[in-house]
Amino acid sequence: MAKMQTPPSIKTYLALMKSMALVVVLAGGTYLSTGKLSLVRENSPLPDDPLYLPNGNYLQLISLDFDGVLSDLFWIKGALYFGSHYRKKDHDYKWLAHFLDLSTEFDPYYYDVYWYGSSILPSVEESIRLLEKGRTYFSTDWKMTEMIGFYYHFYLKDYLAAGRYYEMASLLPGHPPYVPSLAGRFYTEAGDIDSGIRVLKNFYDTCSKKDLKEDFAKRITQLEDIKCLEEKLSVFRKKYQRTPRDLGELVERGLISSLPKEPYGGKYLWDSSQQRVVSTTFPRYGST
Amino acid sequence: MKYQPIFSIAHMTLREGVRNKIFYNIVLFGLLIIASSLVLNKMTVGDETKVIKDLGLTCISLFGLLTILVLGTNHLYHEFEEKIIYTVLVKPIVRRHYLVGKYLGMLSIVVIQSAAMYVLMEILLCALKGMVSWMLLKAVYSLLLELSLLCSLAILFTTFMRPQLSIITILAVYLIGHSISEVRMLVAEEGSRFAQGMIEIVYYLFPNFDHFDISSQVVHNLPLAPFYLTLVTVYGVFYTMIVLMVSAQIFSRKEF
Amino acid sequence: MTAITIEGLSKYYHNGCARGKKVLDNLTLTVDQGEVLGLLGPNGAGKTTTFKLLTGLIFPTSGNISIFNREITDPSVRKLIGFLPENPQFHRYLTADELLTCYGELFSLSKNEIKEKINYVLKLVDLDDARHLLLNKFSKGMIQRIGIAQLLLNDPELLILDEPLSGLDPMGRKMVSEMLRTMKKKGKTIIFSSHILRDVESICDRVAILVRGTLVTVNTVANLLHAFSDSPVSSLEEAFMERVAQ
Are residues A211 and A226 in the same domain? Predict the structure, then answer.
């Protein structure tokens, strides 16, 4: 200031002390109120629908160039929403599908949202719906299609639908051998052996690896044997108005010359509880 | 009166601000968007008033921020750079009184703008439901506390930064302030102790703008926690005062 | 009484850790009450820096300044000062009347006093008709005149003007010169800088010449003109050129 050399007076010190006291009071008040407000907000039953969020199509109109950022934001929001409810253990995830939907509306090629998002959605139907949406954009991605098949098989026990999705996945590049194998199995579980054989034969025809071909040949043989035995069983039922006591009776009655040799070293049996021909190697059709 | 200079500067700032064409454009645009909620709410099912309330409160918040960024930072910087401040500071006015006057002037501009938007919201709600929503006033009050804090930050940064840098800094603080609660929650679950410690420091140091957001409660007619508005007023006012005190210190040493 | 006392005033602008640029070096100067001092020097001599230090817009690196034997930070001193910076700028979206009203309020004048003073100064600078016009509509000459108006609003004892005549047409320069003479007659203390040395010669009691931040001379105009006995000069302009060249 103007006079550089004069030592500060008592008045200056008092003014400084007053300012410091004020700063301490203000800082203390700010700190305490922050803590209290945090507690209040954590304990308040706030509704979760942050802002009104209509259909993503309408939001698209005002998103300008920020689609990517908005997609990220909604994905993050969705993940945090999931996390907060998971922590509270209240199993209330009603807005989660909406967040993931919005995220993928803004960026339909955001793979992670479909992949991870589908695994945290509360209902299988919502997971399948999200993955179906993803399939339209990732049409060559076998994993998404296979995952839908998994949901149908594991949770919904809809083996026909599972078989269909596994078959679709088996037609996409890069899939591992278990995909068509499971397709065949699920079709057979659903009672559609013909489709099962078709899927396995398709893979057999296009496969170039010798050991895989051998394995699939066995699977195809097994299913064809089961199909043949079941056809013979139908003939037997029609003729004798009853089911045979065992498959040996088909041989006795001359419907077949001999029981086919089970390719995995097991035996074919008639399972009266399931009313199906099964193999001892796979108690249910193609099941391991 | 000892503090007359503060009010003179505030009055002068307010006059200048409301005559600025940028201010009119911002207010008009905000009012248009609120008016458009009459159309947007047709896309909803259920409570028609929710869109008006949500959009209106968002406009008050966003356009308030816009005014502070565009008018606030540039106005003050312009006074420094164009040397308009020379003839003011030479008058019998303490520097910190000048700064507080500028702050109050800017805040008045934001209050007038927000009031216009609030009145329009109530008119639309009245037209739809035939009643005035007093809860909305609480949300607007809370938003004004947030905007007053942002105003003080604009003053702080403009005392030693160019407008472009001020704007970026304010936006950064705004974004941090709105996301720090969620980050804190995440880190509390998953983070290391060091990270938790750092986040706690940032949480208490940075302004936490989420505290001012009571739109959800207001829009859904949920009760506020007791003394919530009092707490948030204490927080907003105290923090603003700290920022202004720091600004005054910097400004008192500023050379022109 | 001494109006302005400057002792050993220096101003350096620091660049990071380096000592930086010397703008004013050990300036010592006094101005008596009622005196008119012209502060001259080439561009970059430190004239504006001196005025800014006097008005508290910047702070000295070392040295003392007092005005009417009081600290310049003393608010009571500010009531006695009027300052007109070089190429003044004012709030664009205010009218002349509003600007002067605000400035009047800063002097803690009553409403009536403010009104009276505004009427007086606006008449003085011939801007009465334009009092309700927004300042962004003012011409350069009108801005300079409003500058004079705000300078005189509080009837200051000390007038500080930085290049008050620059950029003005001859009519404008005449108005300012006459205003300075009037204030001089009223016994006001004036310190101003100008490149129009003819006016300085006719108005000033003393002239101080700054060159590169250093005071090279301070003397009456008459003494300066006769300082060069080897080659007598007939005008201040010539004396100034000689001094600066030395």
Answer: yes
DSSP, collapsed to helix, strand or coil, labels residue B201 as: helix
Q: b/e per residue, A181-211, with b = 16+ CB within 10 A?
A: bbbbbbbbbbebbebbbbbbbbbbeeeeeee
3-state DSSP assignment of residue C5: strand
Contact flag C81-B8 (C-beta cutoff 8 Å)? no
Asked if residue A102 is part of any domain, the answer here is: yes
Domain boundary among A119, A139, A159: A139
| Domain's final residue, options A139, A173, A202 | A139
Determine which of A1, A24, A33 to mutate to test the interface with B (most B C-beta atoms within 10 Å).
Answer: A33
Q: Which of A16, A19, A22, A26 to mutate to test the interface with B (most CBs of B within 10 A)?
A: A26
State which residue of chain C sits closest to B78, comparing Cα positions.
C91
- Note whether A1 contacts C: Cβ–Cβ < 8 A: yes
Residues 6+ apart with CB under 8 A from B229: B138, B141, B142
Question: Are the CB atoms for A33 and B239 separated by under 8 Å?
Answer: no
- Calculate how close chain A gets to C35, using CA atoms only, in Å: 23
Written as tens digits, the pLDDT of chain C (246 aa) is 889 999 999 998 876 655 678 889 899 999 999 999 999 988 888 899 999 999 999 999 999 999 998 888 787 899 999 999 998 999 989 999 999 999 999 998 889 999 999 999 999 888 999 999 999 999 988 999 999 999 999 999 999 999 998 877 888 888 888 999 999 999 999 999 987 777 788 889 999 999 888 998 888 887 877 765 455 556 666 667 767 766
Region B42-71: mean pLDDT is 80
- The string of pLDDT tens digits covering residues A209-226 is 888 888 889 889 999 999
- Enumerate residues 6+ apart whose C-beta is below 8 A from A266: A279, A280, A281, A282
Touching partners of B (3+ C-beta pairs < 8 Å):
A, C
Domain residue limits at A72: 63-139
A145 and A288 part of one domain: yes
Angle (nearest 5°) at CA C74 between C71 and C80 = 95
Domain boundaries, chain C: 88-155
Tens-digit pLDDT profile for residues C185-229:
999 999 999 877 777 888 899 999 998 889 988 888 878 777 654
Q: Give the start-to-end residue ranges of the domains of chain B.
A: 4-252
Its pTM stands at: 0.75
B188 close contact with A: CB closer than 8 A: no
Residues A126 and A184 grouped into a single domain: no
Which residues in chain C have their CB less than 8 angstroms from residue B105's CB? none
A-C contacts at Cβ under 8 angstroms: 18
